[in-house]
Amino acid sequence: MTPVEPSWPPEKQEEWLRHLNYTSLRNISVHECYPGHYVHFLHRKNVASPVLRSYHSYAFTEGWAHYCEEMMVEQGFGDARLRLVQLQDALLRNCRYISSIKMHTAGWSWEDATRYFMENAFLDRLPAEREAKRGTWDPGYLNYTLGKLMIKKLRADWLDGHPGGSLQEFHDVLLSLGAPPLGLAREHLLGPDAGPAL
Known about the structure:
mainly alpha
């Protein structure tokens, strides 16, 4: 998490920190640590293939961590508050998806994107500005949502093709690939005729 700037007045500091409550920090921990990025990177260290080790797909990496937020709630981790925070964070990532495309293909200004985050992700002005600014230099931040949706589809298709297969087995085989483009992961897990990724 990004700390407040010491030069900010107290009301601006509060506006920035308001969304970082204990339940939000729990969801952030799922994303960043367990079973998100940290667990993924542990698996990546064990990838034997030099070709697979060379891949680093933004959609796989951020999609996995974002997928974990929803998956953990589905599996019974947390309570209703965590489910609400997970949905709030998913909404934010959906707004990133739209803002990225609109800023880089449809002429949206930084202010247009800021307003979109305020109206649709229900952010205060300062965090909305930060999200819009990130989209100006990181248009790939749409990959959180895109990757999550592709992993969810891959999971459903893999489980359909592996009756009796468990979620752990799917996660193990997926993470054993490292972080290739999700289309290649899909082909590896389901074969060359795997069908569309979304």
